[in-house]
Amino acid sequence: MKPQDITTGKPSSLWIFGYGSLVWKPDFKYRRSQVGYIQGYKRRFWHGDNFHRGNDELPGRVVTLIEDDDESTWGVAFEVTGSQVEESLKYLNVREGVRGGYVTKMVEFFPEGENQPSVQALVYIATADNTLYLGPASSEMIGVQIAVCRGKSGHNLEYLLRLAEFMRNSCPQVEDHHLFSIEAAALTVVSYVLASQ
After folding, report:
1. Do the record's keywords include Zinc (predicted)?
2. What residues are annotated to the active site?
3. For the chain, which ranges sit under pLDDT 50?
């Protein structure tokens, strides 16, 4: 599915699910946002970034979603309405599609809290057939890569730390071992570098 396929029908509202940098920096106007999760996917630092958080020589690592029936991924869904629908999709097509290599898919989003109805939401996913896809590696290797990379949007470490902070503050009941083990590994690298100076 392409974002333009959604705007062809001229929907009056759309939910967009963010699970990486969108949770703290959507950079588009929206009506409201809600913390929650999607099922059947796990968040992994398996996608390369040669623009926002790295470059061609040292690509950064950012998150994508990997299908896994037993997993869920927490994040934020943003409801866009009226002209916000087309504006947000136009912006995200460049940010996530052109520069990030992500494709779109509709998923069921479950808002946090009791008696909250689920909604269909658009999500951006980087797949293994993408040229920027890096695939799995140990937490230590990913942590080292994140600790040393920087792109046009800033240090890759900032991306990691902001995502970990979001999870601790907004989803304290969720244990994201992948995220937190990479955070620990990256901070260990940084502490060694600082201690050697």
Report:
1. no
2. 96
3. 1, 3-4, 7
